[in-house]
């Protein structure tokens, strides 16, 4: 046993002599230094070890290292020991026990001992914490770690003296693609630097100063195989043994740089379409504002929304929806000019920034070109998809002086474009703000409308042209909104389509109408068909037929008393499917009407395909509005032609939107079957319609001109204006909330100290907590007045008349009294005095221009 021990010791001595006691560092190190084999047995120690612990070299040789540790420190040491054998450098605080039993607090530093590429044990240093010598410790540590730390590091290390490489670690070879483990002394790092970055590298090296902070720089390098990498190098100049020495490190950051570039791209770009995103747009608009202000130029903002996108997503899936968005963005890019910036900001919303705009006609032409390009079908997978786009447009600086305002106004215009029926554009005007604010509030409240039972069905009678008999009715939904009063369907149904609520609302409409019609019949009222409107999307859903059939069975309503109205544009979407659906309705005994004929761009001959499938054709109000005894060549002729052709195809004809006696008489002469319009009745509640149905017939009564309020019902005099006064209106307070909105044009018909009467194409509600502000010029004075709506009536389709009660203090009233007294005197001589905003136009056509 003794001989073996001696032999082992001899072997350890040989290893230590040749490989480990480099520069006598081991022997003469003032600290406690030892070498232990892989089993943790002490093979050799220095004099510092024997002096500090009290053992002789002979006593401590082949002594298990754990025996000199405090027992409680052994588990921690084993973990450090095993970690070091796996190639790591470890250090910690521990306690060793001297020969006399006294504990000694030390810092332990251990590194793997490597020979010929293999770990044969550990080097260790115990640093007496009571007399720490920082300078000697750092020298010892650096010498012991040199090979294991630097040689195995993950970054390249190089040392240059006299412009020659004196050291380069293996990782430096790997970075540039050299297969040898260490670079040779003739290695020229400059040779591997990208030509465009060589000047940068040389400048840094030549300007290094001894002892200064290290300099860091990112450059590109070319590997041996010709591939390019990105590296980050750090260099420092020091004086070593009187030699000026450059010490440097190189880290390959190619993958990190790619990740950073990707992250930077994603920060400013949309992942799906690869277009710039909202963040990019925000910064771009801010830059464009500065440029426009400096050069006194204008730019335009176009916000585009993909109509019916939610329908595609819900029916064909999000994967198809994503493909459609990419195809949509690609088509937009094809039509863009070089300076235009296209971005995708959210979902199906895109924004185009058009810099350096000369006039609005330039932008309008651009919008029309985009709309026309989107009209062409998109071929996605096996589908041929027909979609359209709505565009809202605002201009800088006309429509806003900052980012928030210019974007808000473009959004206002977009909402207006969508409310006009999609597939169109709208340029922002100040009157849009009140409408847009209303749209925003309606959109947020719509989800609660069904649950809170705020929806109600109104009914407008269809009248036989010859007998004035009620032969049917159209069911029209209304929303009794707590703030906005009775809201028309064209204001909230497009929102229902966008949000998907149209499905639940549609079911409610069908069931409510069938229940109501059956109740009227059970109460002995005349049995008439009631029509409901179906959108193009709902019309092509197969489950709709099942839903209608179930409702008819539950309500026990005969199918012949239910009629569906579809838009003419629906016929153009998918002819095969449409014909199949029409046949199914015919089999069920449900009548079908073609609504708004003349607006869908189908030809008269196209109706031949639907002979026997469509029962009634409804002529759009745009043709009816143009009927006149003075015009016998255009509108009259077209309307007569439509009636004759439809009746030739065994279709009944209804003229909708009839408002005057002249229109009634002309339609009689044209043998139009039925009439629907305000001249007979507006849409009314179920209770009011039951009263009409009880009478069976409705006499022709032309609508009254205006609301006449007699003087004895007012506390203050009023001035009736023969020529209306143009003014502006804005909402300032709604249910206690202050709002800042744009202004809408109105026509003031009379004004007094107590209030005024005005016309508008915006539907408001009678509500004491909604405060309006009016502005008009009267005899050179800009008059600003506030008040609330106390009554309202719809005098023409889409044109509303309001009565306002003023809210002001005594000073304002006094000033207004003087102005109105002067106005009353001047009006006796001139109905349109100067320095006042009177307009000599037809007050109804004013809002339609």
How would you characterize this protein structure?
Helices cover 37% and strands 30% of the residues. With 849 residues, the chain is an alpha+beta fold. The strands form 6 sheets. An 8-stranded mixed barrel has the order 18-19-21-22-23-24-25-26, surrounded by 4 helices. The chain starts with a helix and ends in a 22-residue tail after the last helix. Mean pLDDT is 83; it is low at 1-21 and 702-713.
Core attributes:
alpha+beta, six-stranded antiparallel barrel, 37% helix, 25 helices, disordered N terminus, single chain, eight-stranded mixed barrel, 849 residues
Brief summary:
By secondary structure, the protein is an alpha+beta fold. It is 37% helix and 30% strand. The strands form six sheets. Strands 18-19-21-22-23-24-25-26 form an eight-stranded mixed beta barrel, surrounded by four helices.
